[in-house]
Amino acid sequence: MGEHKYAELVLRLREEILSGKYVSGQKLPSENQLSEETGYSRQTVRRAMSILESEGLTNRVQGSGTYVRSALPKREATRNIAVVTSYIGEYIFPAILQGIDHVLAGNGYTTLLMATRNRVDNERRILQDLLHKPIDGLIVEGTKTALPNPNIDMYDRFNELNIPVVFFNGYYSNLKRPIYVVADDRAGGQMACQALLDKGHTRIAGIFKSDDIQGHRRYAGYAEALRLAGLTVADDHVVWYTTESREGILGSGIPQAVGGCTAVVCYNDEIAMQVLHRMGISAPGQLDIASFDYSTFAQFSPVPFLSLSSPKEDLGRMAAEKMLHILQGQMEKPLILPWSTGREEVSASRESGD
User: How far, in Å, CA of 105 to CA of 81, rounded?
Assistant: First the structure.
């Protein structure tokens, strides 16, 4: 029973240190405090503390107490890379994941795949679990990147453990020098709106996602195109939705916002299909749509609409390549990829110095 108790306490304290509950240099509770809190004998507590010190997680200072070491032990190479994305088998994600796996598998790495469903609570649970997994790096799609993220401390923990993180699709701007591969969404939003303006439309609605930064940037490009055309952004013709509020807001919001307009810029092809359905569009010319991703929704829609081509596989492939470069000791920079209509690109791929 004593063996079980000391091992249980070691496991608990180890997890609390690795998850960041106790940070570098912080003093742990004393043996007396732990004994009183757990009901274990001081001998059991002392043995657990000794194990943590032998693992290099803590440092005992005579007459002062036990502290979390400022430098955690370096992990051995495992050839495992964790990939965390919002979804796995839906929409454009299979193509992105194919790009990641092609690079990693081709270089002898195994992929550990997890999905957050764009929820920060899921993201935290996954990150906490990964802190105890044998991984060399983390490739991740940011969750609700337009909102303040409560899991930044977890990413700081990966940094302390020298586990590199590369973002794709979205990232957290308040991280220190994040490495990411994203599409140029502001330029894409301007391009989508401009395509409708070039067809003679002057009443152009917009539907955008508010909890992901891609939605904000596509809106910014849409608004810029209207401004340059001498047109005003009409709030009554712009709908914002979130991951959780999507069905309710779009159900009533689409007819209200799109009514009276001859065209609409949609956040992505899934939303474009909802517009066609809710507005009862059954033939070309009734309502022009410009959208994003050139997914199967756009390719097989019974009513054709413009959809900018997403650099799906490139997002995954280049994120994986950056991860390998970092693991090889190379310096990396963020990368911004262009959208395309299939005939021309909105901008050249460029590395960001941000």
Answer: 10
Q: Residue 67: exposed, middle, or buried by beta-carbon count in 10 A (0-12, 13-18, 19+)?
A: middle
DSSP 3-state of 353: coil
For residues 346 and 338, is the Cβ–Cβ distance under 8 A?
yes
Q: What is the pTM of this model?
A: 0.78
Asked whether the predicted pLDDT for residue 74 surpasses 60, the reply is no
The answer to whether the beta carbons of residues 66 and 48 sit under 8 Å apart is no
Answer yes or no: are the C-beta atoms of 317 and 348 closer than 8 Å.
no
Report CA-CA distances (Å) from 102 to 80, 123, 354.
14, 25, 28
If DSSP codes are grouped into helix, strand and coil, which group holds residue 202?
coil
pLDDT computed for residue 98 by the predictor? 95
Distances (CA, A) of 149 to 124, 144, 189: 10, 8, 25
Rg of the chain on CA atoms, in Å: 25
In the DSSP assignment, the letter for residue 40 is: -
Query: Look-up: residue for tokens 């609605």?
Result: 205
CB 149 within 8 A of CB 180: no
Distance separating alpha carbons of residues 303 and 281, to the nearest angstrom: 8
Alpha-carbon gap, residue 115 to 338, rounded angstroms: 26
Mean pLDDT confidence for 169-183 = 93
Q: What is the CA 167 to chain-centroid distance, rounded?
A: 6
- Two structure tokens written together for 68: 């979390």
